[in-house]
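2024-03-11 09:14:02 DEBUG pipeline.ingest accepted 1 chain
2024-03-11 09:14:02 DEBUG pipeline.ingest length=138
2024-03-11 09:14:03 DEBUG pipeline.predict start
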Amino acid sequence: MNKIILMGRLTKEPETRYTQTNNTLVASFTLAVNRRFTRQGEERQADFIPVVAWSKLGEFCSKYFKKGQQVGVIGRIQTRNWEDENKVKHYITEVVAEEAYFADSKREGDTSTFENTFGTNVASGSEFSVSSDDDLPF
């Protein structure tokens, strides 16, 4: 089984691009995930984990995820490699998002909820729609 659950903060805005072959949207971002334990006298450490989200989920992430926001991601780990134009081989391990959630606490005075706006699960195959900025939970 290949399943990963992460909660962390976005290090920068998601980057969006389209594949060359079939013009599919893919959003890439990095999550800073705090390590569970710290050594006495040391600052808390974090791991910086690359995440990719495809199609509708990628569109959602690119529209609503912002730098510094705390988000939750459920997905799978994927490794891949490629050779660049200089014949140098590159390797990457990343998380392919299957679900993505807002994880920040609700802002004061905000009466909307994530579930009321998007339902309980924004998965890669699900549909979502937002009619205006007034519908957003933030």
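2024-03-11 09:14:41 DEBUG pipeline.report The two ends are 35 Å apart (CA to CA).
2024-03-11 09:14:41 DEBUG pipeline.predict end
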